[in-house]
Amino acid sequence: MVGHTHEDIDQMFSKFSQALHHKSAPTVGKLLEVLKAAYRPENSHSELLRSVWDFRAMFSGCDALRGHSIPHIFKIYMKGSQLTLAYKDWPLPDEMYREIPMNLTGMNPHLSVVRPLCTTIEDITRSMYRDLPKWKESARLKPSEIDDWGRYLQSLSTTVDPEVDFKDFENFNAAPTEERRLPENLLAALQKSHRKISRKSQVSVQRKRRTQ
Question: Domain residues of the chain, as ranges?
């Protein structure tokens, strides 16, 4: 079994790739329009994120997890007054959860904004801004598209906070009290794969039969 499953995110970017093979997106605004039209359902939304919150810095003072790339299923919940992480390698009914306590006393409650690699961004921005007259002369872009790029590149010189405030985040849903059961066909395939990768190898030497 591979380390990840192909779900809606893979389908979404497949649709994006197909659409961009057939439609031009010469500006950021046009790109957002193509992405929105390429994917269904109808209420899909595309938006340019000018900045994001730095959650890594928020948890940088907390105990770090190790080995969490191997398990496939996790639950985080309060066990009494102790924040607890429960995990297991596979979502099999006969595999028990293993628990470890988590300590978030070093968490910084004040979010900061992820800062880009300013030197790299500034170099690229200046280079693109210098190329705008060349694009205009070569008629690669329409005058309105040149103006769009000029405004966009100028906007990169300022850092703004994300529009979604930390206090606006919804609370996490409580962990379900009952384990969600997999469909029987998927469970059977997973158990077969698990038995295969759990099987111990055995090497032996077979003596060659000697003829008289």
Answer: 12-48, 53-112, 115-160
Residue-wise pLDDT tens for the chain (212 aa)? 444 555 677 788 888 889 999 999 999 999 999 988 887 766 677 888 888 888 888 888 888 888 888 888 888 888 888 889 999 988 888 888 999 998 888 888 788 888 776 677 788 888 988 888 888 888 888 889 999 999 998 888 777 888 777 666 666 666 566 667 778 888 888 888 878 777 766 655 556 676 66
* Count of CB atoms situated within 10 Å of the CB of 83: 13
Structure tokens at 48: 């340019």
DSSP reduced 3-state for 47: coil
Q: What is the DSSP letter of 39?
A: S
In this prediction the pTM is 0.59
Q: Which residue has the tokens 């090497």?
A: 203
Classified as helix, coil or strand, 95 is coil
Looking at the chain, list the stretches that DSSP marks H as alpha helix, in order from N- to C-terminal side: 8-22, 28-38, 55-58, 118-137, 143-155, 184-198
At 32 the three-state DSSP class reads helix
